[in-house]
C-alpha cells in the first residue's frame, strides 16, 4: 500500500467488528442529527443522496422483439438493492442508446443471410430523474428464431455516483467485456448447436419431401404435373435453399473464432481454471460443435440423441411463440460463468470511488515494484491482474503519446496511409448528427474522464448541476468498430490521406437529436490501435470494413505502453522540458527516491491530495531503477515529491487545451484495450480481504495490549524467528495472525508463518518459519519442547502468551515506533493494515535502494579499501536513509532477502539460509 | 533462560544449573559465523567429512551414502550410492595420470567389506573391491608412492588401479584402528594396545613388486590406542583409552615423552568424588589428537588439553570444555582451536598468552582445575613454580555454534568458505561468515544486473 487513506470515506460495507474500541454512545442532546437522507447504507458522501436505490447494482436488460425493452435480472438479486428504482423505465433508457452497428440479414447483393460479428458498445448514461448513472454495455446474441437472428441485450452497472462511473469507465469496460465475451462464446456454441439441429430437421424434411415427390412421379405417368406435384417441388426447392442458407450460417459461426484468432489481439473467453478448459474452451474443443477449422466438413455424429423433425413449409409467424431465455441462449455453463463474473464485478466496484481509486493506484504502483513486492505483499493480490488503467486518466501520458504520434506520423507519412482502412462506426449510425458540438464542449467531457477528481468536482459544479436541474442527462458513448466477416479490402488502405485534425474533432463531438434534452459525446475508434481520433473520424468508410489486421503493411505498430515511457525519458528531452507533467510521470519510474521521500508532515498519514489516477511509467526493472547520478548527487526526495504532487495538478489545469486534443484519443484508446485484454484468472480477493482485516484488528489489539510490541515486531522485521508460546491454541493462533502482517516473505510463495506446533522445534524450522505458534505443555514432551527453545534461544525471540513476557533483543530504532504506536487513533483493522503496509513499503523502498546502489557494496576504484566501502555503506544507511540504531538491521535484512530473491535462478528452490546475530536478549514483562 | 521458560522454581536439575562448563552467552563479537545453511540428504548419522579440493567436500555416514557438496553454495553435487552398510572410512585420493591430468578420487570403505573408488568429477563409481575378509576400518593414502593402504584385520597395500600389491598376515581380529605414515616409507598402525611399525619396500626385481615388513612392535600403552597423529617428520603422537599420551620419535620409534596423569583426577582431590560417580573410560579417553609445529592438542573426555612438545608438558587446558565427550578438535591457523562434542555444540577457542601479574590470583583457564580444597596450597606452589620460568597460556572461549540437535561427529574447516559440521542428527551444517556472504551476494547481484543489461556499470 502506498498510502494510508485514513481519512478516505469508506462506504464499503464493513461491519464494525471492533466492539472493544467503539466509542460509547453520546447522550442524545449532544448528538448531531443524522444525515437527512440516511436510509439503510446511506452515507453523507453519496453524491446523489436522493437516488432510489441503496447501492450499486448490475442490471441486465433485453430489447425483446415482442414486448420491447425489459429488465431480465439484477445483481445482487435483492429487491432491497434496487428499491423503488424503476427498472422498466431504466431498461428503456439504456436500450435506447444502443449504437451497435448491428446489421444482420440479407445484405444487398448477397444471396445468403450474413452474420455480422458485432463488437460491443459501451456507453455512459446519466439519468437525473432516477438519480442514477450507468455504464451500459450492449451486446447481441444470436438466436435462430429471432428476427434477423439477433437478440440485443445490455448489461448496465448502475450507480448513484456519476463520478464513479466516469472514473472507473475503463475498469468497468474491461470487466464487462469479459462477461460479454463469456456470454457470446456460450451463445456461439448454442447457436451452432441450434443450427445443426435445424439442418438435420431440414435434411429429414427434404428426404421426406423427396420421397413424396418420387411417389407422386411414379403414381402419375401422365405428361404433366399436378399442382400438387408442383407445390411439392417448390417446397422441396425452398427446403434445399434453406439448407444451403443454414449451412452457410453454420460455417460463418464456426469460422468466427478462427478468423478472430488471426487477429492477434483477439482473446477468446477462457475459463479460469485449467480443468474446465477441456470442456469449456469451446472454440478449440472438438466435442463442442463449433470447431475452429473453417474447411472442416460438418459432422453431425456427435449429437446422436437428436431425432429430426419434419419442418412445415410455412412456419407459423406467431407472436405468441416463446423466446428463448438468456440461459437457453448461451449454454448453462457459460451463463453461470457470466453470472459469477458479474457478481465479481459487483463486489469489485462496491464502495466509494475514492476507495477504489486508491486501491487501484496502490496496486498499480505495487506491480511496478517487481523487485521488492514479494516481501510484504499478498502474492495472490498482486497476481490478480489489475484493471488496465494505463490508457486513460493520465494527462501526461496521453498528451505525450499524442505528441509522439503526431511527430511520428509527420516523419513517416507512409504510416498514415494505412489509416485509411480505419473507419468509425459513428457515421453509420442512422442518427441525425448536428455538427454544432464544438470543441469547447468536448474537452469538458473529456476532462471528466481523465482529469483528477479535483477537476471533476469543479466541472461537476459547473455543468452537471446545471444539467441535473434542467433534467438533462449526459451520455458518453464509446463504440467499437464492428468487424464483419468480409475479407479485407486492400484498396482502402491505399487511400491518400491528409491529416486534418480540426475537421475530425468536430465530427467526433456531436450532438444527437434523438432525445432532445440529452447530451451525448460519442467517441469511437477502431479497436486495434491507438490512432488519434482526428484521423479516424475524418475518413468514413463502409460498415463492413475489415478490422485492421496487418500491422506490417502500415509499417507501424503501436505499442501503447512502451512507446511513451521509453521515448519521453530518453530521447525527447526537449519535449520533456515543455511538458512538466510528463516529467512527473517519469519520475515514478526513473527516480524512485521520490517515493522514499519521507515527508515529516505525513507522520499522521493525513492525505491532502485526493487520489489521482495512476500514472503509468515503464514497467519492469529498468524503469524502477534508481539512477546513479541521482543518488550520488544526493537524494532530494522532498523536492521531487512536492513537484510531483503539486506540479501535476497545475499542469493538468494549464494543459487543458492540449488535453482536448488527446481526449478522443484517450477514450478511443480506452475502448481499444477493453475488448483486447485477455481475460485473466480473477481470484476472488474477498477471503484475503477478510484475512487482512482480521489480522489488522488483532495486530492493533496486540500493540495496544503489549507494551513490548516494538521489540517483538523488530524481531520479525529483522528476520529473527519469533515463537509465540502458550497453552491455549486459540490465543496463540490469534497472536500469530496478528503478528503475521509484519513478517517479510522470504520467497514469493511461502509465507514463513506456522500457526501451531506441538513438537520440539529444530534449527530447520527457524530457516523455514519466522513466526511460530508453539504449544506449552506440562508433559515430559513439553519439557523437551522447552529445552529445545532454551537451546536455540540465540536464534529466537520468545513471546510467552501465558505469562505475558517477551525475551528478545533490545530495540531502540524509530521505524517500529511509527509502525506500531499504541496510542494510534486508527480503529479499524483494515485501516491499520494499510498503515502497516504503507510503512513497510517505505522500508522496502529503502531496502531496494540500499541493495541496488552499486558503490555501497563494491569499491568505486580498485584501490579503495574494504573499510571505506563499509563506512560508506553505514553512512548511507544512517544519513541518506535516515535510519537509527536497529532500523539499520531491518533494512539490511530486507536487502539480504532482496538479493537472494534476485539472484535466485527461477525454478531453483535455493537453499534457505539462516542469518543471525550474536546479540544479547532481554526479558520484557508487562 | 530455561527457568524463565518453565516458570518458577520447578526446574529439574538441568544442565545449565550444575554444569561447570564455561559459557559465553549470546554476545559473541569474535564469532564470525553469522549465517548457516543446513544441508539435508543423509538418513543416518553422518560421521565423516573429507575435503576434496578448495570448494568441495564429501560426507559419509551410517546410511552408506556419500554426498558431494559445494562448500560455497551448499549445493548437493552428487549422491554416491554403492555401499550397502555403513561407511567406516573414507579418504580423498588425487591421482595424476600419465597425461598429467589430476583426477580427484574418493576411496570409501564400508562395513559390507567393500572398498569403492569414486570419481568426484562425475560422481561415478570407478572401481569396487570386495575381496576383504573383514571390514576395512582405516584408509591411508601415500601420495608420494601413489599407493593407498587399507587397514582391517590385516594391512593391504594397493596401487591406484586397485591392484593388490602386498599384504600382511592376519594381525588381529579387532583390526587396525589407525594408520599413520612415517618417514622412510614406514607406517605406524595402531592395533589394540600395540603400535606396529611396518616398512614398505619395493622389491628389487621390478617396479610392480612391493613387500611390507613388520619392523617393530611398541607395547608401551596400557590400553587400546584410540588416536594416532603425525606431528612432523620427526615426531608422532599416540593417545589411548585411559588417557595416556605418548610422543614418539618418528625415525627410531623411541618414546620421547609421555603424559599419563595430567587429566588424572587424583591430582585434583576436590573434584574426585564427583568424577568417580560418573567415571568411565570415556571420561579420560583421548578421543582425538591434532597438532601444529609446537603443540599437540588433545581431546580428552570432555576437556581439551594443549601439550607443548618442547616444554614437554601441558601448557593450557579446559577440563570441561563441553558438556560431554569432545569428538574432534582442530587447530586453525589463527591460534584458534575448534572442538566439537557429543553435546551437539561446536566451540571456538583461542589460545592466549596470559599477562603475568604475580600478585593476582589465578582466575581462569588451566588453573581453574585447582579449586579450594586440601591440595590448594600445594597446587598454588606448583603454579607459582610455573610462573617463574614460563609464560602462561589459557584457552578462551570466543564463540560457540549451536545448531545440531545431536552429537557433532566431525567438522571441516574451509577457511574463508566457512565451517562444515556433521552430526548424528543426519544433518550437515555449513557455517558461514554473514558479512562475507552478504558482500558476495552483492557482487553476484551486480554481475547479474550487468549481464541482463539492467545496469551500466559506471566505475
From TrEMBL, chain A:
Chain segments carrying region Disordered: 277-301, 477-514, 667-690
UniProt-listed GO biological process terms: autophagy
GO cellular component, one term: cytoplasm
Subcellular location, record wording: Cytoplasm
Gene Ontology molecular function, alphabetical: GTPase activator activity; guanyl-nucleotide exchange factor activity
Pfam short name (any one): Folliculin
UDENN FLCN/SMCR8-type domain mapped to chain residues: 48-899
Stretches with biased composition (Basic and acidic residues): 277-287
Composition bias, Polar residues: 481-494
Keywords: Autophagy, Cytoplasm, Guanine-nucleotide releasing factor
Primary location: cytoplasm
PROSITE patterns documented for this protein: DENN_FLCN_SMCR8
Family from the record: Belongs to the SMCR8 family.
The protein's name in its UniProt record: SMCR8 protein
Gene that encodes it: Smcr8
TrEMBL record, chain B:
Record has Cytoplasm as a keyword: yes
Quaternary structure (record): Component of the C9orf72-SMCR8 complex, at least composed of C9orf72, SMCR8 and WDR41. The complex is formed of two protomers, each individually consisting of one molecule each of C9orf72, SMCR8 and WDR41. The protomers homodimerize via an interaction between C9orf72 (via C-terminus) and SMCR8 (via N-terminus). Within each protomer SMCR8 (via DENN domain) acts as a bridging protein between WDR41 (via C-terminus and N-terminus) and C9orf72 (via C-terminus). The C9orf72-SMCR8 complex associates with the ULK1/ATG1 kinase complex.
Chief place of localization: cytoplasm
Pfam families the UniProt entry points to: Beta-prop_WDR41
Signal peptide: none
Keyword Transmembrane helix belongs to the record: no
Cellular component terms per the entry's GO annotation: lysosomal membrane
Job description of the protein: Non-catalytic component of the C9orf72-SMCR8 complex, a complex that has guanine nucleotide exchange factor (GEF) activity and regulates autophagy. The C9orf72-SMCR8 complex promotes the exchange of GDP to GTP, converting inactive GDP-bound RAB8A and RAB39B into their active GTP-bound form, thereby promoting autophagosome maturation. As part of the C9orf72-SMCR8 complex, stimulates RAB8A and RAB11A GTPase activity in vitro, however WDR42 is shown not be an essential complex component for this function.
Xref: PROSITE patterns: WD_REPEATS_1, WD_REPEATS_2, WD_REPEATS_REGION
WD repeats, residue ranges: 39-79, 80-128, 319-359
InterPro entries in the cross-refs: WD40/YVTN_repeat-like_dom_sf, WD40_PAC1, WD40_repeat_CS, WD40_repeat_dom_sf, WD40_rpt, WDR41
Location(s) in or outside the cell: Cytoplasm
Gene3D superfamilies assigned to the protein according to its UniProt record, in alphabetical order: YVTN repeat-like/Quinoprotein amine dehydrogenase
Protein name: WD repeat-containing protein 41
Any one Gene Ontology BP term: autophagy
Keywords: Autophagy, Cytoplasm, Repeat, WD repeat
